[in-house]
Amino acid sequence: MRVVVDSPPQGIESKDDRAGAIAVRLCEDDYPGWLAGCDAHLLEVAQTPYQAQVFSEAEIRDKLKSAIAFTRHALNQPNHYLWGGTVAPNYDCSGLMQAAFASVGIWLPRDAYQQEAFTQPIALDSVQPGDLIFFGTVDKATHVGLYLGEGRYIHSSGKEQGRNGIGIDILSAEGDRVTQAYYRQLRGAGRVVKSYSFHP
Questions:
Q1: Which of 40, 95, 148, 158 has a CA between 20 and 30 Å from the CA of residue 9?
Q2: What backbone torsions phi and psi does residue 117 show, to the nearest 5 degrees?
Q3: 168: part of which helix (H) or strand (E)?
Q4: Which listed residue (27, 41, 73, 93) is catalytic?
Q5: Measuring CA to CA, which residue among 36, 37, 26 is closest to residue 200?
Q6: Would residue 93 show up in a list of annotated catalytic residues for this protein?
Q7: What is the reported pLDDT for 1?
Q8: Is the pLDDT of residue 13 over 50?
């Protein structure tokens, strides 16, 4: 993982100094974060500039089966919903999408609303396996799932929606309470046609 340091470490006298924090951004998705001041000694200057992989739409399509397989594997592991979760076994919704695509070398932005803005919008009646399905309010996507085909999608959802972890639901007003809760929040769909490219 590579980061860009937004605020250079200042006033850090030793690795035990915990007073300061360093603002960083991940090169893979430009997501902001903080590095504890006591971990500043772990930063190393990269010898070569970060260069994101570039894929054609056809290359991305070829990788979608493997991204879907990643989510199915994650489903079969003991897991629970973890807000902010981006590593196995416990993911949040957008963390699962980001990890699935990253597993095949394709980077997505971190949050559901960012993923929605990043993807190519498509009509719900033309979704294909590997497309992202977005849910939320009129104003903002707050949840995302990966379309599997045959009206089904896989996603990680929290207890407040009736499940605690990864599951498969259907895009329908019919079904159990999890399916119905998300269908009421359905916003649309998007297709991943490129990998995120960081520009400092």
A1: 95
A2: -65, -30
A3: strand 165-170
A4: 93
A5: 26
A6: yes
A7: 56
A8: no
pLDDT above 70: residue 134 = yes
Catalytic status, residue 155: yes
Single pTM value for the model: 0.85
Token pair recorded at residue 125: 């009646």
Catalytic residue among 38, 80, 143, 199: 143
Which long-range contacts link 151-160 to residues 24+ away (Cβ below 8 Å)?
A: 154/68, 154/71, 154/72, 154/75, 154/96, 155/93, 155/96, 155/182, 156/79, 156/81, 156/85, 156/91, 156/92, 156/93, 156/95, 156/96, 157/81, 157/93, 157/182, 158/81, 158/83, 158/92, 159/81
pLDDT greater at residue 46 or residue 6: 46
- Region 159-186: mean pLDDT is 93
Catalytic residue among 38, 73, 155, 199: 155
pLDDT of amino acid 19: 54
Neighbours of 179 (CB within 10 A): 21
Would you call the peptide bond into 200 cis, given omega within 30 degrees of 0 as the criterion? no
Provide the percentage of residues in the chain whose pLDDT is more than 70. 90
